[in-house]
Design brief:
With 627 residues, the chain is α/β, with parallel strands linked by helices. The protein has 17 helices and 30 strands. The structure holds S-adenosylmethionine. S-adenosylmethionine binds next to strand 19.
C-alpha cells in the first residue's frame, strides 16, 4: 500500500506499470468542412416541441425540451485516438461537460491471448486510468460520468475509479439487462447484464433528474375506499430499528391492538400517527383489522420517480434492440457492430444526468448511439471514435438524424423531426517531427495558423487571432497576448512590436530566432525560440496511444525472430521474466517524456540525440523575459 503524507497507508489498487504516465502533447483539432454536416434550415420554435423523459425535480430545472428556438450546430465528431482527442479538448472544455457516457472495449481479449499472468489487465487499467483522469477534468462541477462494463474488469475498474473520482463521489451501479435468454454457448453462467458505474464530479453539487412515471407505475395506485383525494398506494408504517418513543400500541378499527415487530418501531411518533388517522391517511385493510399502512396519494407524489439500480430491458432496451436500430439504418449490412447500445439506454442516462443544451461526451463512440440520442434530446454532444466506422457509420447515422430521416430508436417518443448539425475534426499531427539528422523541427504539415494555434495550446493561451493587430494571435488575459512566427526577429522589429503593445499590455513572442537584444531591453515583451522552448513540454510524434497490436509488448514466438539467434536471448522465458519484460515494454507506451523524445528510434542510433530537456544553459538562453 502506498504511504500517505502523514505516514499512514492509503487503500489503493496497484498494477504493473501504474506509475508510468504519458506526457501528452496538446494537439490541435483540424476541421474537415467536407465531412461536417448541418441541416439546411433552422427549426426555431419548432424544436422546442422536443420532449425528454425527464420530469421536473424539486431541486432542479425542468428537463423538458431544449430552449425555444435553439438548434445546435456546434456538436463535434472527432476522428482519432481518444487520449489525444481528450487532451486536445482540455483547454476549451475543462469543467464544461455535464454528462459523460463511455462504453469502452471491456478488455482487449484476443490481443493478449499469449499472456496468462495479468499483464493485459494492467495495460488495460493504465489506458483507462489515463483517459478517466482527463475525462474527470472535463466534467462540470455538477456533472457525472456513466461507465459501462461487464464483469471481467468491473471490479478492478471500480477500485481504480474510486482512486480517480474519490469514493465519496460514487453514486451507484446500474445493472442493465442486456439480454433476456441465456447464451447457449456459455459454459458456466450466461451473463445477461452489464454494469454501469455512476460517479459525480462532486457529489455535493451533483443534481439528477427523475424519470417520468410509466403507465405501469401509475397503475399501482387505486382507490378502494373512494378517497376524494384520488388513487393511492400504501407503504409500510414501521422502520427496521427499535426506538423507544415510537414503540407503542395502535388500536385498529376492529378493536384489536397491534405493536411493531420485535426490533422495529413505527416510522412516526404517536402524535403524528393520530393526526394521520384523523386525516384518513392510514389504511387498516378492507376489514379494519390489518397492520396499519401509510396511504400515499398519486396526486401528492413528486413528479417523476428516482431511478433504481435495476434497468430492465423492458425499460431501457437490450442489445438486440441496439442491433435492430443499426440494421434499420444500414439495411444492407449484416451486424456491423457486436454490441451497439439501444437508444433507450442512453436516453435514460441523458434524462437523469443532463438537461437540454448541456454538453454530453462519449469518447468511445462506436456506432454513434450517444450522439444520435443526445441530438434527438436537444443536448450538445462530442463524440470521439478511432475506427473507420467513424466515417462509414457515425457520419451517415448523424446525417440521417439531422435530416429527420431516422425514424427508429427514440425518434417518435421525443418527437424528433430533424435539425442542427455537427463539425467533423481529426486530431492534428504532432507539432514537431524529426529532420534528416534526427533533430526535432516544426512539422511540415503546419501552416502559420496551425502553428499559432498549437503554440497557444502549449503556452496556455486562447487562440483568437485579431482581425486588426497581426501580433494578437491569442490571449491569456485581457492584456496578455501571444504572437507566433518562424521568422528571425531583429531589434528593430522587436522595438516596433514593443511600441505597439504599449506599457499596459504584455506580449509573448514565439519566434524562430532573435538578434541584437539583451535581457531588460523591452519590459513588455517575452521572447522564446521555437521549437527549442517547447521541447521539454511533452512527448512528440506519439500518435497512437491505443491498444493496437503493434503497440503491445512482444511475446514469445510472435516476433518472427528465429529461435536461437541474438533476439532469442531477449525473449522472456519464464512467467516472471515475461511479466518483467512486458512491463518494461508496456512502459514505453507511456514514458517517453522521461527518457527523451528520440528514444529507441533507429534513425537516431549512434547520433547525437535531442533530449526532452535542453541543457540548462541553453534552456535559459532560449527564453528572454522582459528583454
Ligand atoms: C464497445 S464500442 C462502443 C459502442 C457504442 N456505445 C455504441 O452504442 O455503438 C467501443 C468503441 O470504442 C472505440 N475505441 C476503442 N479504443 C479507442 C480509442 N483509443 N480512441 C477512440 N475510440 C476507441 C472502438 O473502435 C469501438 O468503436
Amino acid at each position: 500500500m502506498p504511504p500517505m503524507a502523514n505516514g499512514k497507508q492509503k487503500l489503493e489498487l496497484t498494477w504493473i506499470g501504474k506509475e508510468n504516465r504519458p506526457k501528452l502533447e496538446p494537439r490541435i483539432l483540424i476541421e474537415d468542412p467536407a465531412k461536417s454536416y448541418h441541416a439546411g434550415f433552422r427549426h426555431g420554435d419548432q424544436q422546442s416541441a422536443v420532449s425528454s423523459q425527464a420530469a421536473t425535480t424539486d431541486d432542479g430545472p425542468s428537463a423538458a425540451g431544449p430552449p425555444s428556438g435553439k438548434d445546435f450546430f456546434d456538436n463535434r465528431l472527432i476522428f482519432g485516438d481518444n487520449l489525444l482527442a481528450l487532451k486536445a479538448l482540455e483547454q476549451e472544455f475543462t469543467g464544461k461537460i455535464k454528462c459523460i457516457y463511455i462504453d469502452p472495449p471491456y478488455n482487449t481479449g484476443s490481443a493478449f491471448t499469449h499472456y496468462d499472468d495479468g499483464i493485459e489487465h494492467s495495460l488495460w487499467l493504465s489506458l483507462m486510468r489515463d483517459r478517466l483522469e482527463l475525462l474527470r477534468r472535463l466534467l462540470s462541477p455538477d456533472g457525472s460520468i456513466f461507465i459501462q462494463i461487464d464483469d471481467r474488469e468491473c471490479h478492478y475498474l471500480k477500485v481504480a475509479m474510486d482512486g480517480i473520482f474519490g469514493r465519496d463521489n460514487f453514486l451507484g451501479t446500474a445493472i442493465w439487462q442486456k439480454r433476456i435468454s441465456p447464451d447457449p454457448d456459455s459454459k458456466f453462467i450466461s451473463a445477461t447484464h452489464d454494469y454501469i458505474f455512476l460517479y459525480a464530479r462532486d457529489q455535493g453539487r451533483c443534481m439528477m433528474n427523475r424519470l417520468v412515471r410509466t403507465a405501469e407505475q401509475d397503475a399501482r395506485y387505486a382507490n378502494p375506499d373512494d378517497d376524494p383525494r384520488g388513487p393511492w398506494t400504501s407503504s409500510d408504517l414501521t422502520r427496521r430499528e427499535y426506538r423507544e418513543h415510537d414503540f407503542y400500541a395502535i388500536k385498529l378499527p376492529s378493536g384489536r391492538e397491534v405493536w411493531p415487530a420485535k426490533g422495529r418501531s413505527w416510522s412516526v411518533p404517536p402524535e403524528t400517527f393520530e393526526e394521520m388517522r384523523g386525516e384518513n391517511r392510514v389504511y387498516f385493510g378492507p376489514n379494519g383489522d390489518a397492520m396499519p399502512r401509510r396511504k400515499r396519494f398519486l396526486s401528492e407524489v413528486r413528479d417523476g420517480v428516482v431511478p433504481t439500480s435495476w434497468w430492465s430491458s423492458e425499460d431501457a432496451g437490450k442489445n438486440e434492440d441496439g442491433k435492430r436500430e443499426i440494421k434499420s439504418l444500414f439495411p444492407d449490412e449484416n451486424d456491423p457492430f457486436a454490441t451497439p447500445k439501444p437508444e433507450r439506454l442512453i436516453q435514460r442516462i441523458l434524462t437523469i444526468a443532463s438537461n437540454p443544451g448541456d454538453w454530453v461526451l462519449d469518447s468511445f463512440a462506436g456506432s454513434g448511439t450517444t450522439g444520435a440520442v443526445a441530438h434527438k434530446m436537444g443536448r450538445r454532444w462530442i463524440m470521439v471514435e478511432l475506427g473507420e466506422h467513424c466515417h462509414t457509420h457515425i457520419i451517415p447515422r448523424m446525417k440521417k438524424v439531422i435530416d429527420g430521416a431516422d425514424p427508429g430508436g427514440i425518434t417518435e417518443s421525443v418527437g424528433w423531426e430533424g435539425g442542427g448539425g455537427f463539425r467533423y475534426y481529426r486530431v492534428g499531427p504532432s507539432l514537431l517531427e524529426k529532420d534528416q539528422f534526427g533533430n526535432l523541427v516544426i512539422s511540415k504539415e503546419f501552416n502559420s495558423a496551425m502553428l499559432a494555434e498549437a503554440m497557444c495550446k502549449l503556452e496556455g493561451f486562447i487562440y483568437a487571432p485579431s482581425t486588426t493587430d497581426y501580433w494578437q494571435q491569442g490571449h491569456s488575459t485581457e492584456a496578455d497576448f501571444i504572437y507566433v512566427t518562424t521568422q528571425t526577429l531583429t531589434r528593430e522589429q522587436l522595438q516596433k512590436l514593443s511600441d505597439d503593445v504599449g506599457p499596459n499590455r504584455t506580449l509573448l513572442i514565439c519566434c524562430g530566432a532573435f538578434r541584437g537584444i539583451k535581457a531588460g531591453d523591452f519590459p513588455n515583451l517575452t521572447v522564446k525560440k521555437i521549437p527549442k522552448a517547447v521541447l521539454a513540454k511533452c512527448e512528440w510524434g506519439h500518435d497512437d496511444y491505443s491498444l493496437e497490436i503493434q503497440n503491445l509488448p512482444v511475446v514469445e514466438g510472435k516476433s518472427g525472430a528465429s529461435r536461437g539467434g541474438a533476439e532469442d536471448a531477449e525473449r522472456p522465458r519464464t512467467k516472471a521474466h515475461r511479466r518483467k519484460q512486458a512491463a518494461a515494454n508496456s512502459a514505453s507506451l507511456f514514458d517517453m517524456a522521461e527518457t527523451g523524445v528520440s528514444r529507441g528510434g533507429a534513425e537516431n542510433d549512434g547520433k547525437q540525440t535531442p533530449t526532452s530537456a535542453p541543457p540548462r544553459e541553453d534552456f535559459f538562453d532560449n527564453r528572454l523575459k522582459g528583454i
